[in-house]
Specification:
heterodimer; A: 114 residues; mainly beta; 4-stranded antiparallel beta sheet; 0% helix; globular; B: 113 residues; 6-stranded mixed beta sheet; 5-stranded antiparallel beta sheet; 52% strand
Chain lengths: 114, 113
């Protein structure tokens, strides 16, 4: 079974802090994704990566950056956390590029920015 | 960003009832449609990938149909059980590589014992 793990389930940070959210997948998937989920909105894509060191902006990349130094690990960085980044963050991976590929999700990190 | 709509947003049914809900998506440039189930405190997990008009897929008591010409998919649950309580998401890969996926806001199902 594919396993996608996220470094924390819950995180509390202060405004202005630099925040790192880590995601690891164990099935050699090429693609990795970061989403956020907010009440009343669908999952929204922040960034995705289709290969090591390759990344592409999603729909809401402002205030975020990402890093993929190794195939199995994809990090989401909040450069200077703000209260409007309080949200549930979900990481996902898929084996190959393409819209027919199933995405496998981590359990999510619920981030509170005070 | 394309519009993917799910209805209803929430649903309460009694154990044993059958239920269904809808995902609507743009009918042009259709490539695939995904259904996921997201139980509280767990990871979303894939139910179905649907690719062809008229597709019907089934997993146990859950089935899904697809109409790409009119841009909708139905998810059916027969004889709902408390363990079916979850949020059901549909996801639509967008043209231009299909890497970017638009998710609906989901249908939250609660099955009352």
């Amino acid at each position: 079974d594919v396993k996608v793990t996220q470094s924390s389930r819950y995180l509390v940070k202060r405004t202005g802090e630099k925040v790192f959210l880590e995601c690891v997948q164990d099935m050699d998937h090429e693609n990795m994704f970061w989403y956020r989920q907010d009440p009343g909105l669908g999952l929204r894509l922040i960034y995705f990566s289709y290969d090591v060191k390759m990344k592409e902006k999603g729909d809401i990349p402002e205030g975020y950056s990402v890093s993929r130094e190794k195939k199995e690990r994809f990090s989401l960085i909040l450069e200077s956390a703000s209260t409007n980044q309080t949200s549930m963050y979900l990481c996902a991976s898929s084996l190959y590029p393409g819209g027919q590929e199933t995405q496998y999700f981590g359990p999510g990190t619920r981030l509170l920015v005070l | 960003i394309l519009n993917v709509e799910q209805s209803p947003q929430s649903l309460h049914v009694q154990e044993g009832d059958s239920t269904n809900f809808t995902c609507s998506f743009p009918s042009s440039n259709f490539y695939a449609l995904h259904w996921y189930r997201w139980e509280t405190a767990k990871s979303p997990e894939a139910l179905f990938v649907m690719t062809l008009n008229g597709d019907e897929k089934k997993k146990g008591r859950i089935s899904a149909t697809l109409n790409t010409k009119e841009g909708y998919s139905y998810l059916y649950i027969k004889g709902s059980q408390p363990e079916d309580s979850a949020t059901y998401l549909c996801a639509y890969p967008r043209a231009g590589g299909y890497q970017k996926v638009t998710f609906g806001i989901g249908t939250k199902l609660q099955v009352i014992p």
